[in-house]
Structures are given as C-alpha cells and as structure tokens.
Amino acid sequence: MNFVVVSSIGAVFMGIFALFVRMKAAKKPTNALKIIMPPVFMSSGALMYVVPEFRLTGMEILEVVILGMLFSILLIKTSKFEIRENEIFLKRSKAFIYILVGLLVVRIGLKTILSATIDYGELSGMFFLLAFSMIVPWRIAMYLDYKQLYRQLHGQQ
Length: 157
Known about the structure:
Order of helices and strands: HHHEEHH
Oligomer: single chain
Shape: elongated
Helix content: 55-70%
Number of strands: 2
Radius of gyration: 17 Å
C-alpha cells in the first residue's frame, strides 16, 4: 500500500484522537504542566532528522515553519480559558472541531499533491516540522493566557 495513503489514514485517526482529548480536557481544570508538556513530548520526534532521508533544506524549513505558524493562529483564536469553581478550565469551542478537521483536510491535500514531487522521507520531515511549528506557538499562547488568569485568580499582579 502507498505510504502517503497509510500516513494519511494515520493522520485522520490522530485527528479524531485529538478531538476526543480536547473534549475530555475541557471537563477538568488545567495547569501549566498540561499546557507545556505536549510540545516537549513531541520534540523527541525531531530525532528523525538524524536519518539523512528526513533532512530538509533551509528553504523547506523556512517555508514549513512559516506555514505552521500561520496555521497556529487558528488554534490560538479558538483556545480560551475561563475561571469556573475557582479553577481554570479550557473553554469548549465548536469552531475548534471545524478548524482541526479543516487543517487535517489541508494537510492530507498538501501531502497528496507534494508526494508526486517530494521524496517520502523528506515529506515526512516537512509534515513533522509543520505540526511542531503549529503546536509550539499555540501552546506558548495558551500558557501566557493561563498565567494571566492564574495571576487574576490568585490576586497577583
């Protein structure tokens, strides 16, 4: 079976998993560690670049990082916190589901188009960096919002 098809199916399942995790997370209070840890755990995936097939050129890195940061704006806009029961919770957003599905569709479309001209290993490296470039700014913004609410909740300036 084609690697692009298999990885696209995997991306769909990961997207569905992310939706369920997000819905479950909205039911429990959050903390700084829950916000910071996902990109830390994900960073171990950068070990793929040890293998030459996955390495990217400087221009590819620049393009993918810029695209990831642009995509992260959508995630940042739909991730807000609120104070409930004297705790900080992630607000549920109906738009988040549509944005996540939209980003998944764009990702699969890009992968399908680019797989015709870019080697599979290099494409894998690009899509890992794209995801990482989306998650890091999103989580930094979430952390800053969380800290602001935390100070407000605990009466700090």
